[in-house]
Amino acid sequence: MEYWIWLSSVPYIGPVTSRRLLQAFGDPETVYRSDASDLCQIKGITQRQINSIIENRSLDRVHKIMEDCEKHHISILTQNHPDYPRRAKEPEDSPIILYYKGCVRNMEKTVGIVGARRCTQEEKLKVKEITEQYVSDHTAIISGMAKGIDSYAHTACLKTGGYTVAVLGNGLEICYPCEHRKLMEQIAEKGLLISEYPPGTQPAPYRFPKRNRLISAWSDKLIVVAAGRGSGAFITAEYEKNYGREVEVM
Q: What is the rounded distance in angstroms from the CA atom of residue 186 to the CA atom of residue 182?
């Protein structure tokens, strides 16, 4: 496990390059022990990335991450594990590891529901109805635990006895927004919290667009409710379209 964490945290090595390295070397420990002549054979790799791999061969930070995961009861899912959903690892930019809390279930059908943070009572009821309809069809609900539409979808799913996945843009020991602490605890108990970020990672604006791509990757279909153009919900929709999946705007 430690080498998976190491590869996922090497500076300048993103998910696409990480996957290419794994395809070439077979496992992250072999990447860790590779030399420059081996690394330069990887398609698209830059000298900066090669230097970063060679210069960051330390497991000190990795061991700290593992200690923090144990302290906060956070588990780690690697991309070669059978529990990592097939749909979620189809995109080439899917992370090689995910941190999670809760239960990873086999989800035959999934739908992402995202939208405005500020919405009307009518829009809130619409989300509730949509969510209940999908839950009755045994479809898992994917969203981002943000204020507004996201939280209403998670809540309606839990109240209906469904399974929901919340994708966070920070470490899983941090609740953001802070007023969703109870919701976060309920999702961890009855659903699944996931993040590509290790414990200690604070929420930041630039992390949420990256988080949005995971909502898309985990969703067979995406529903966007009451969102303005240029919003995070529409960023999620663009990812969904790029992944060749259906988007419905309401």
A: 6
